[in-house]
Write a structure and sequence with these properties.
InterPro entries: Homeodomain-like_sf, HTH-type_TetR-like_transc_reg, HTH_TetR, Tet_transcr_reg_TetR-rel_C_sf, Tscrpt_reg_YcdC_C. Keywords: DNA-binding. The protein is built from 10 helices and no strands. By secondary structure, it is an all-alpha fold. It is globular. The relative contact order is 0.09.
Length: 223
């Protein structure tokens, strides 16, 4: 029997209120974040090959099938974690502009990078592990978006140099040096603790470390 014109199938046409829909979306995002946080913790300790989907789902307190609903494979989950990390890691560099004072800008950048090493050591270690292994899953991100960003910010640093605001320096090597020194305090935190008995969570040690890094890297660049 045909249904009268205008009939609505309430089972298939059900719509959620804006408030309910917002709650559902928040719950989905919170679960996705929980999975990525669990994956980050395990990947940074055990690597990709040493981590299983079952371990991630257990730590995130979700079923394996639920995890695979959000991320189709372990490699897909790993790539999501590492590309998100790269985005977060590079965001402070994106703010460089020729109109800024170079010493102040670079000093702030060093501070932000050191804060990241203090607050996000697992992320730094995971990125380091990926690169040391040849960046098999991240190489395209390194060859394109990262290179594009570094080329653009190198141009800014060269503008500072041409304007006499900064002594001549190779921009790429300056950025590499900032990364190497600040991330060392996360990637080799065990060594730092063994030698000094302290780490960046100690406010006095953090400030001393920051002042020394800024002095080592920037004093020779002041015009």
């Amino acid at each position: 029997m045909s249904k009268p014109e205008g009939h609505v199938n309430t089972k298939t046409a059900r719509a959620f209120s804006p408030t309910t829909q917002k709650r559902r979306e928040q719950a989905l995002q919170e679960k996705r974040t929980r999975i990525m946080d669990a994956a980050l913790s395990l990947f940074s300790k055990n690597g990709v090959s040493g981590t299983t989907v079952e371990q991630v789902s257990e730590l995130a307190n979700v079923s394996k099938s639920n995890l695979l609903y959000y991320f189709k494979s372990k490699d897909g989950l790993y790539l999501s974690v590492i590309t998100h990390l790269l985005d977060v890691w590079l965001t402070p560099l994106q703010s460089f502009s020729a109109e800024q004072d170079p010493i102040e800008t670079l000093s702030n950048y060093i501070k932000v990078k050191l804060e990241m090493s203090r607050d996000n050591p697992a992320e730094s270690k995971l990125f380091c592990m990926e690169v040391v292994q040849g960046a098999p899953l991240l190489i395209k991100e390194l060859e394109t978006p990262l290179k594009t960003l570094l080329d653009a910010k190198s141009a800014v640093i060269n503008e500072w140099i041409k304007a006499g605001k900064l002594k001549p320096v190779d921009p790429i090597h300056l950025i590499f040096s900032i990364w190497a020194i600040t991330q060392h305090y996360a990637d080799f935190s065990v060594q730092i603790k063994a030698v000094t008995g302290k780490n960046l969570s100690d406010p006095v040690f953090f400030d001393t470390t920051l002042n020394n890094i800024q002095h080592i890297l920037l004093d020779g660049l002041k015009p």
